């Protein structure tokens, strides 16, 4: 156990030395590549302004999303009315989509329970 702890400390030391040596270069390169996204001057007031712009822009997009949602619902209703005209491929795609949604739901439940399958901590 002590040898594994010593190995872990050694790896952590190597990683911190690598970051100390190459971190600033990576940081400068990253900023240079993405300078078109940087707002000048970089102040707290500018950050607060951008946060408010993002919030209210998202709020302003709700009506458009609402309309798109109901268009999708109407499309599904139309498909259901004409279900005798559906092809097997379309039904298969819909079934796979439903199965995928269920799988993501199950995975989220497992993650939410702390990666336990029964819900109890052992």
From TrEMBL:
Lyase recorded as keyword: no
Keywords linked to the UniProt accession: ATP synthesis, CF(0), Hydrogen ion transport, Ion transport, Membrane, Mitochondrion, Transport
GO BP terms: proton motive force-driven ATP synthesis
Compartments (UniProt record): Mitochondrion membrane
A cellular component term, taken from the record's GO annotations: proton-transporting ATP synthase complex
Molecular function in Gene Ontology: proton transmembrane transporter activity
Top-level division of the source organism's lineage: Eukaryota
Family: Belongs to the ATPase g subunit family.
Protein name stated in the entry: ATPase, F0 complex, subunit G, mitochondrial
Organism: Senna tora
């Amino acid at each position: 156990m002590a040898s594994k702890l010593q190995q872990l400390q050694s790896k952590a030391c190597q990683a911190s030395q690598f970051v100390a040596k190459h971190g600033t270069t990576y940081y400068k390169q990253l900023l240079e590549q993405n300078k078109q996204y940087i707002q000048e001057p970089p102040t707290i007031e500018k950050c607060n302004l951008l946060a408010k712009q993002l919030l209210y822009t998202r709020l302003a997009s709700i009506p458009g999303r609402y309309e798109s949602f109901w268009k999708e619902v109407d499309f599904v209703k139309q498909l259901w009315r004409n279900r005798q005209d559906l092809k097997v491929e379309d039904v298969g795609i819909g079934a796979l989509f439903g199965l995928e949604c269920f799988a993501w739901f199950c995975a989220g439940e497992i993650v939410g329970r702390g990666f336990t399958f029964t819900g109890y901590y052992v």
